[in-house]
């Protein structure tokens, strides 16, 4: 969903009176050959946290060393603790459902990774009909005074409870906190 003067009241109303699912992914890298290695989401109903989900995923491609340095997930750890990509995507889409506003920080990246994962494993991409909100775009629109719009900056400057740790669940919760804080007091 584009962030503009017409959509902001709709987004704010949805945040107060509806389902919002903030999500995040950690990946083996950022190319078309990379995969999701952790996926997490936090569901909010009428602005209150209702439930969370988080899964490590066993990738079928190598881990980029710079990606591992960011999130700390190694291939041996993921082989031991991860679930199959198809199962992770099924659980994620079941969690999201059909009536949520899907929120992510730099949503284009996470949505691209979801589409890529679904395409690679011949799965149906089930987020196509959902409205999405990017907290990166929302922050740029509502807080042009900030030095940058990285999630870590929003957590610190707004302030938001939580951390931007590059753990998918931590980051989904921090993203949700930024989303609600940015919309605080908006009609």
CATH level-4 homologous superfamily: Ribonuclease H-like superfamily/Ribonuclease H
Which regions have little confidence, pLDDT < 50, spanning 5+ residues?
Answer: none
Computed Rg: 16 Å
Mean pLDDT: 95
User: How much helicity do the residues have?
Assistant: 40-55%
Strand order of the largest sheet: 3-2-1-4-5
SS content category: alpha/beta
Spell out the helices and strands N to C. HEEEHHHEHEHHH
How far apart are the termini? 18 Å
Strand content: 15-25%
Write down the CATH class. Answer: Alpha Beta
Describe the largest sheet: 5 strands, mixed
Q: State the CATH architecture.
A: 2-Layer Sandwich
Tally of contiguous helical segments: 8
Annotation, overall tally of beta strands: 5
Number of separate domains: 1
Give a verbal description of the structure.
The protein is of the alpha/beta class and 187 residues long. The chain has one domain (7-183): 2-Layer Sandwich (Nucleotidyltransferase, domain 5). Helices cover 43% and strands 20% of the residues. It contains 8 helices and 5 strands; from the N terminus they run αβββαααβαβααα. It has helices at 7-16, 65-71, 75-81, 85-96, 107-120, 135-142, 151-157, 168-183, and strands at residues 19-27, 36-45, 48-56, 100-104, 131-134. Strands 3-2-1-4-5 form a 5-stranded mixed β-sheet. Helix 6 packs parallel to helix 8. The longest helix has 16 residues, at 168-183. It is globular and about 45 Å long.
């Amino acid at each position: 969903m584009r962030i503009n003067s017409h959509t902001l009241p709709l987004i704010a109303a949805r945040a107060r009176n509806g389902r919002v699912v903030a999500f995040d992914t950690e990946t083996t890298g950022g190319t078309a050959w990379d995969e999701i290695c952790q996926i997490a989401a936090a569901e909010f109903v009428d602005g209150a946290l209702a439930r969370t989900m988080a899964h490590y995923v066993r990738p079928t491609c190598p881990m980029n060393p710079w990606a591992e340095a960011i999130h700390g997930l190694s291939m041996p750890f993921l082989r031991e603790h991860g679930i199959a990509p198809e199962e992770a995507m099924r659980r994620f889409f079941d969690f999201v459902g059909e009536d949520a506003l899907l929120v992510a920080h730099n949503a284009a990246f996470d949505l691209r990774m979801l589409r890529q994962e679904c395409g690679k494993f011949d799965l149906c991409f089930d987020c196509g009909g959902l409205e999405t909100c990017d907290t990166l775009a929302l922050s740029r629109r509502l807080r042009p005074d900030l030095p940058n719009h990285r999630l870590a900056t929003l957590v610190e400057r707004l302030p938001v409870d939580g951390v931007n740790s590059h753990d998918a669940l931590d980051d989904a919760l921090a993203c949700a906190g930024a989303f609600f804080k940015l919309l605080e007091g908006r009609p």
